[in-house]
Amino acid sequence: MSPALPRLTVVCSALLLSLSLSHGTQLFGNDASVVQTEATKSWPGLIVNVTHQTAPFPFNSFVLYANPVVTEDGAKVLYDVNAEFKVVNSAYQKWMYYVQTDGYAMSGDSYDQTTCMEWEAYPYALPAVNAIATALMGLSPGAEPDGHDCPGHKYFFQLFKTSHTVCETNPGKMITITGNNLVLTVSYADKMNLKRNGGSSAGCKPVAFPASVAPIGKSLLTGQSLPRTS
Question: Which domain of life, per UniProt (predicted)?
Fold first, then answer.
C-alpha cells in the first residue's frame, strides 16, 4: 500500500448507541499490518475517548482508534480509523463497526461490511478525525499557556462552521479537543493492528484526504515538542 494514497458535521440518527470500550491493540483482528515507512514510524497512533455533552446521546463515552500513514517525505499524513459499538433501538440490538482506510469509510455489522459512507463520520456519532487533523495543521503560532483552564498551550479553530478549542491538558502526553458538542480526549499509543476495508475496490468514494504537515499540528498529534525558532 502506498502511503500517498488519498485517503461533516456529525449527523446522527435517533438511535440509542451504546458503545463498547474495547481493550488491547487488536480491536478488529490482524487483517493487515500498518505500513511502516520511516516517516510513519515517528508518529504514534491515537486513542480518542469521545464524550457527548448534550442529548440525544445518553451514554457517557466511547473510544476510537487511529493510526497515521505518513508520506515518505513526511509532508502529509492520513489517519486510518476504527471504532466498534453497539446499536440499540426498540426493534433490535446489534454490533456495528466503522473502518476508514486510505480515506475510504465503510460501516457494517459483525457479519458483513458492505456500506460505503458518504461522509467521514455520518451517520454515527464519530468525530471526523482527518478533518480535525487538517484543521490542527492550519493552526497559527502565538497561543500561550493559560493556567486557569489549560496547563499547556491552547488554540482555537473553526470546523464545520463551529468553534473548537484544543488544549495540551498533559503536554507531550494528552490533548483535549472540544467543539460540536463533543469532548475528545486524545492520548498517544503504539501502532495498533486495525481492520482495513476494501472501500476503493467496492466502489466507495474517498471521504478524507491527507493533511499537509505543519509544526503545531504535528506537535499536537504526536506529543513532540515544537521545533525551536531562532
Answer: Eukaryota
**Is the pTM here over 0.85, yes or no?**
no
Domain boundaries, the chain: 16-222
pLDDT digits (tens, 9 = 90+) for 83-111: 887 666 667 677 778 899 999 999 888 64
Residue written as grid cell 487488536: 26
Contacts of 195 by beta carbon, 8 Å cutoff, 6+ apart: 27, 28, 29, 31, 82, 97, 99
- What does the alpha-carbon distance between residue 105 and residue 152 come to, in Å, rounded to a whole number? 33
Alpha carbons 138 and 157: distance in angstroms, whole number: 8
Q: What is the CA radius of gyration of the chain?
A: 17
What's the number of CA atoms in the CB half-sphere (13 Å) around residue 7? 32
Structure-block grid coordinates of residue 141 = 503560532
Extract the C-alpha cell encoding 159.
470546523
